[in-house]
Amino acid sequence: RALRGRPLDLAGHRVVVSAGGTREAIDPVRYIGNRSSGLQGYALARTAVARGAEVTLVAANVTLPDPAGAAVVRVGSAAELREAVLAAADDADVVVMAAAVADFRPAERHDAKIKKTDGEPAPIHLAKNPDILAELGSRRKERGGDSPRVLVGFAAETHDVLANGQAKLARKGCDLLVVNEVGESLAFGTPDNAATILVAGGEPVEVPRGPKDDIADAVWDAVAPRLR
Ligand code: CTP
Ligand code: CA
């Protein structure tokens, strides 16, 4: 679908979208990463621009070209993503966390490349990363409830999709949670997706399998009425 002809229902609103997947350094040449391509986050940024929003896109290790009209901040690790998102969220009306943020990082980063001639490999100990979405949710609560006005999370689940999603929505304090079922060539690195948008205090919205732009538009359709 062409980007023209969309409603300008996000005009005058600042939107922050995170996209891609973080990389957590083991040493200067190796990292722990994930399979997120950034396609869904980029579709969200592109369609938000088309609907009139002022868009900041925080992109973690995405190889796609910058979407026209969005301000792009490129980051690598979860710590960098956190800093960029929290800074941009300060005066945002909507924050959408579409990035796959690593839950854990190597507890220590080796300054020099680990060499195989060093002998048997040492185990990599992991430390927990901060949960950025939950932090945005609790920060909003502390500040009295409306900054950002709309907070959107994503979740990829392999089983008990709706039950896990509902629990996650509540735990993170967000308004909408877009749940993808992973598997059968859906979600990671594919042009198509299918999703259920869980709504705090409302009925879920089913989005049929289709291009990631369609999922993005369904998200903005759910966000826009909450900005009025
Ligand atoms: N998220 C985040 N910071 C993290 C981990 C996740 O902001 N450290 C965000 C993601 O961007 C996504 C949402 O939280 O919008 C849900 O991520 P998900 O990985 O599905 O949830 P987790 O709480 O990490 O639970 P789990 O991976 O154990 O299912
Ligand atoms: Ca996770």
Automatic annotation (TrEMBL):
Binds 1 FMN per subunit. CTP binds at D103, K113, P130, D131, I132, L133, F154, K168, K172. Keywords: Decarboxylase, Flavoprotein, FMN, Ligase, Lyase, Magnesium, Metal-binding, Multifunctional enzyme. Pathway: Cofactor biosynthesis; coenzyme A biosynthesis; CoA from (R)-pantothenate: step 3/5; Cofactor biosynthesis; coenzyme A biosynthesis; CoA from (R)-pantothenate: step 2/5. Signal peptide: none annotated. It comes from the Bacteria. Its cofactor is Mg(2+); FMN. GO terms for molecular function: phosphopantothenate--cysteine ligase activity; phosphopantothenoylcysteine decarboxylase activity. It catalyses: N-[(R)-4-phosphopantothenoyl]-L-cysteine + H(+) = (R)-4'-phosphopantetheine + CO2; (R)-4'-phosphopantothenate + L-cysteine + CTP = N-[(R)-4-phosphopantothenoyl]-L-cysteine + CMP + diphosphate + H(+). Residues 15-228 are annotated as: Phosphopantothenate--cysteine ligase. The keyword Metal-binding applies. Residues 10-224 form the DNA/pantothenate metabolism flavoprotein C-terminal domain. Its EC number is 4.1.1.36, 6.3.2.5. Catalyzes two sequential steps in the biosynthesis of coenzyme A. In the first step cysteine is conjugated to 4'-phosphopantothenate to form 4-phosphopantothenoylcysteine. In the second step the latter compound is decarboxylated to form 4'-phosphopantotheine. Catalyzes two steps in the biosynthesis of coenzyme A. In the first step cysteine is conjugated to 4'-phosphopantothenate to form 4-phosphopantothenoylcysteine, in the latter compound is decarboxylated to form 4'-phosphopantotheine. In the N-terminal section; belongs to the HFCD (homo-oligomeric flavin containing Cys decarboxylase) superfamily. This is Coenzyme A biosynthesis bifunctional protein CoaBC. It comes from Nonomuraea ferruginea.
